[in-house]
Structures are given as structure tokens and as C-alpha cells.
Design goal:
Blueprint: H1 2-151, H2 155-203, E1 216-218, H3 223-229, H4 234-243, E2 246-248, E3 255-259, H5 263-279, H6 284-312, H7 320-328, E4 333-334, E5 337-338, H8 339-357, H9 361-370, H10 385-395, H11 400-408, H12 418-432, H13 441-456, E6 461-467, E7 472-477, H14 484-501, E8 509-514
Parallel strand pairs: 7-8
Antiparallel strand pairs: 1-3, 2-3, 4-5, 6-7
């Protein structure tokens, strides 16, 4: 029983399961069918939407392509217009050039025609000139034969005469050309030298004062004169013996005069006497003591003055003896011009001139500084100061140029180097500049008149002019009363007379001018 029930229950369960499974399958199938139908609907919608999008995209692409085609067409049309315009401009330029070429061709044709006409005319002229030349030649030949017959000369003799005249004429012209070029070169050289000297003088500004050497001693009262003389004149005799000067005591109040040819000795004596008067103790022993002290101080001053002068012009390496001689020039004057200041001035001017000429400035300054060194010893040695100075400089090993400058700065020798000429020019500039050498107006005018009067004594002289402070004389002679030879003789005679009758420093140049004038009138 139980088994039957169990089987029935199992059968019912299986049937229920089968029914449930069938129902589930039917449900699942219905859902799947529904889903498939929805999917198909969605797919159809998507396909339709895709077709719509594709159609829209196709239209957009077609629009862009049309726009691009339009832009490309416009660009091509713009380029085509620019190309057509450029071609049009080129065509116009070519047409214009063609017109110019055509015009030039026409001008060339006209010129060719003109040249042809000119050539024909020239050919006619040449033929005509040939005919005239032949006719002239025949006429000249006839005239030549007539001249031969009239002059009585043969053809060879006449030819020689003509050649001789031609040679003389060419020689005269050659001489005139040479003289003209020499004159031009001389003027250029003088102008260049004048400019160099003026530039050097302008660049070197020196004081135009000359120091005067005094030889008088002031005394406080006339009683001091008796003390200077001493008992029975022993003080003055001792003073003159020690110092080597003459002491002049006269009736002039308040002054005692010291006289000596040596400026250094006179200066030592003057300072010694001043110190004795200040000290008040005047007797032979004190005189000798003060003199020795003063002499040592003056010698030291001389050495220092020479060294300072060398340093002022930047000249180094000088021997002590040369420096001493240079310092001694401080007490030497020439026509009231201090020789040491003159030497320094010449050194500076020589250096400036050397710079302008491209030469050694230091060497030129050395030559200028030492050119008058002989004046410091010319009273001790025989000879002129140029030779004395050259011997001294040679003894102390100075360069050849310095020795030659000292020896030849007054043109006493043949010039061997340019530094001698430079020093001579600087020396002349320093000595002749205004204020360098003092002279009273009365003496100056008297000396100039005397120079001119001497020149006027000669018979053929018409005018005479003393220039450059008496350093040069220019004399004009009558061309009708003299010749070139007599003018030269007159110049020498004037120089000889000046040497005999006058005393002057340095040198004096005399120039005699004989002028010939020829005047004709063209009508």
C-alpha cells in the first residue's frame, strides 16, 4: 500500500516536473521571441539611423567638396589673372624695348649716312689738302731757291745755319725751363722750412727777458768804504789778490764797483764783498775764509745749474766736466742774452724742428744744448768757441752729430749731417727773436743807417736795405750801369768793406739784385 502510494506520488511529481519544464520552456521561448523581435526592431532602427547619418555625411562631404572646388577655382582664376597681368606688363616692356631698338636702329642708320657723308667730305678735304700741300711745297721750294740765290748760301750751309739757330733756341728754352723749375723747388723748400721754423717757434714759448750781469755792490754808508780799503789799503789789496778782480771805490755814494773780465770770478767777488759787508769783520784772513766758502758755493751752483739745464731739456749721460762747463754759461752773456738760457732755448727749438722732419728729437736737443759749450772756455783756450766746444765734446765722448753741430753751427765747415743745419736754424731763431738781445733804439737806428750808407757809397747802387736786425743787406744796382759780373764784384766789395769798417756778431748776408725789365706794346 505504501508502495503504491509512493509510486503514485512519484508519478505525480514527475508529471508536475514535466509540466513545469514545458511551461518554463514555453515561457523562455516567448521571452526569446520577444527579445529577438525587439532586437530586430532596434537593428532596423539603427540601420535606418545609420543610413540617415551616412546620407547627411555624404551631403556634408559634397558641400565641402563643392566649397573646396570653388576656392580652388577662385585661386586658379586669381593666379591666371596675375599671370595674364604679368604677361601683359612684359609684353608692354617688350613692345617698349622693341620701339627703342627700332628708334636706335633708325638713329644708327642716320649716323651711318652722316658718317658716310662726312667720310666723303673728309676724303675730298684730304685730296684738296694734298693738292694744296703739293702746291705749297712747290712754292716753298721756289722761295727756298730764291733765298739761296739772295743769301748766296748753299742748301747744306743754310741747313746748318738753321740747325744751329734751332739748337741755340732750344738751349735757351732748356735753360729757362731749368731755371723755372729750380726757382719753384727753391720756393717750395723755403716755404716748407719757414713753416717748420714758425711751427717750432709757436710751440715753444719762452720768456723774452735777458738777465743782466751786475758788477756793483751796495754799501750801507760811506764809512764802509774805509773799512773795505783798510789800514794803508791792506784789506783791498788782500781782497783783489784773493779774488782776482779790481775794486773801484770812487766818489759815487753807496756803491762799490767790482771789475773783472771773468763773469764767474766777478760774481764770486761780488758775493764775497756782500757777505763781508754784512758780517762787518773785514780783514785779510776773514776775506780769504769768506772767499773760499763763496767759491765752493758758486762751483756747486754751477754744477747744479748745468744738471738742471740738462734735465730741463731731457738730456742725460753728460760728463761732470761738460755739466760744469754748461753751468758756467749761466754767467756768460752774448749781446745781453744769457747763454745758458739761449742754449736751452736752442735745444727745445732743435727738438721741435727734428720732430717735424722725422729725425731723432733727443739727439737734436743734445746738439742744441751743447752747441755753445765752447763759450765757457773760450777765454782760457785759443780759437773760436765752435772749435773749442767741438774739441771739448770730442774729448768727453759725445756723438759725432753733437760735435759737428758745435763745430759748424756758424757755417764754418761743410755740413755733414742734418742736425748741424737744425741747430744753426734754431740758433738763429733764438738769437734774432724779439727781446732776445737788447739794444737801445738810438744805437739800433744808427747801426742800420751805417750799414745802408756803406752800401750806397758804391757807384752803381741805387737802393740799399738793412733787414733782419742788420743780419742781411739787400742791395739794388742799376741794370744799365752794371753787368752780372760787376754786380757780383760789387757784392764782394760791400762784404769786404763791412768787415773792415764794422764789428758785428755772427755773420751778415749781402744780396745784390740786378733787375732787367723788357717792355713792349702789342698793337
Amino acid at each position: 500500500m505504501n508502495t503504491v502510494l509512493y509510486l503514485q506520488f512519484t508519478a505525480v511529481s514527475l508529471l508536475s516536473l514535466l509540466i513545469g519544464a514545458a511551461a518554463a520552456w514555453l515561457g523562455i521561448r516567448a521571452v526569446a521571441t520577444s527579445r529577438r523581435r525587439d532586437a530586430q526592431t532596434e537593428a532596423a532602427r539603427i540601420i535606418e539611423q545609420a543610413n540617415i547619418d551616412a546620407e547627411n555625411h555624404r551631403r556634408e562631404v559634397e558641400i565641402k567638396l563643392k566649397e573646396l572646388a570653388v576656392a580652388q577655382k577662385e585661386k586658379i582664376e586669381s593666379e591666371a589673372r596675375a599671370f595674364r597681368r604679368e604677361n601683359h606688363e612684359k609684353e608692354r616692356a617688350l613692345n617698349k624695348r622693341q620701339d627703342m631698338i627700332d628708334k636706335q636702329v633708325d638713329d644708327l642708320r642716320k649716323q651711318e649716312k652722316l658718317v658716310e657723308v662726312t667720310q666723303r667730305r673728309l676724303a675730298d678735304k684730304i685730296e684738296e689738302n694734298k693738292a694744296r700741300g703739293a702746291e705749297i711745297q712747290k712754292t716753298l721750294e721756289k722761295q727756298r731757291q730764291s733765298l739761296y740765290e739772295i743769301s748766296g748760301l748753299s742748301q747744306d750751309a743754310a741747313t746748318k745755319q738753321l740747325l744751329k739757330n734751332l739748337e741755340t733756341e732750344l738751349s735757351d728754352e732748356e735753360g729757362a725751363i731749368i731755371l723755372r723749375h729750380e726757382k719753384r723747388v727753391t720756393e717750395q723748400c723755403q716755404e716748407t722750412a719757414r713753416n717748420i721754423l714758425l711751427l717750432a717757434l709757436q710751440r715753444y714759448a719762452a720768456a723774452h727777458t735777458a738777465e743782466a750781469t751786475t758788477s756793483t755792490v751796495d754799501i750801507p754808508n760811506d764809512d764802509m768804504k774805509g773799512r773795505i780799503i783798510g789800514r794803508e789799503g791792506r784789506n783791498i789789496r788782500a781782497f783783489e789778490k784773493v779774488t782776482g778782480v779790481d775794486v773801484i771805490i770812487d766818489d759815487t755814494p753807496g756803491v762799490v764797483i767790482v771789475s773783472a773780465f771773468d763773469a764767474i770770478r766777478r760774481e764770486v767777488a761780488r758775493l764775497t764783498l756782500n757777505r763781508l759787508i754784512t758780517d762787518g769783520r773785514i780783514h785779510p784772513a776773514r776775506i780769504e775764509e769768506i772767499y773760499n766758502e763763496t767759491n765752493e758755493e758758486i762751483q756747486a751752483f754751477i754744477q747744479r745749474a748745468g744738471l738742471e739745464a740738462a734735465e730741463e731739456v731731457d738730456v742725460h749721460g753728460l760728463h761732470d766736466r761738460v755739466l760744469n762747463l754748461l753751468g758756467r754759461l749761466y754767467f756768460r752773456t752774448s749781446y745781453s742774452q744769457n747763454v745758458l738760457r739761449h742754449s736751452i732755448e736752442v735745444a727745445f727749438l732743435s727738438g721741435l724742428i727734428a720732430v717735424e722732419l722725422g729725425l731723432d728729437e733727443r739727439l737734436a736737443r743734445r746738439c742744441g744744448l751743447l752747441h755753445d759749450i765752447g763759450k765757457a772756455a773760450d777765454h782760457e783756450l785759443e780759437g773760436g768757441h765752435p772749435k773749442i766746444g767741438a774739441d771739448i765734446l770730442k774729448r768727453y765722448g759725445e756723438p759725432f752729430e753733437v760735435i759737428q753741430a758745435a763745430l759748424g753751427h756758424h757755417d764754418d765747415i761743410k755740413i755733414a749731417n742734418p742736425y748741424t743745419v737744425i741747430v744753426a736754424a734754431a740758433d738763429a731763431c733764438s738769437a734774432s727773436r724779439p727781446g732776445a738781445r737788447r739794444e737801445t733804439l738810438e744805437n739800433y737806428v744808427k747801426r742800420m743807417e751805417e750799414l745802408e750808407n756803406i752800401a750806397m757809397e758804391f757807384p752803381s747802387v741805387e737802393q740799399a736795405f738793412a733787414v733782419q736786425a742788420g743780419r742781411e743787406m739787400r742791395v739794388l744796382v742799376n741794370a744799365g750801369q752794371s753787368t752780372d759780373e760787376s754786380a757780383t764784384k760789387t757784392c764782394r766789395d760791400i762784404v769786404k768793406t763791412l768787415k773792415e769798417r764794422l764789428q758785428f756778431p755772427g755773420e751778415m748776408k749781402v744780396t745784390v739784385i740786378r733787375e732787367v725789365r723788357a717792355t713792349e706794346v702789342a698793337k
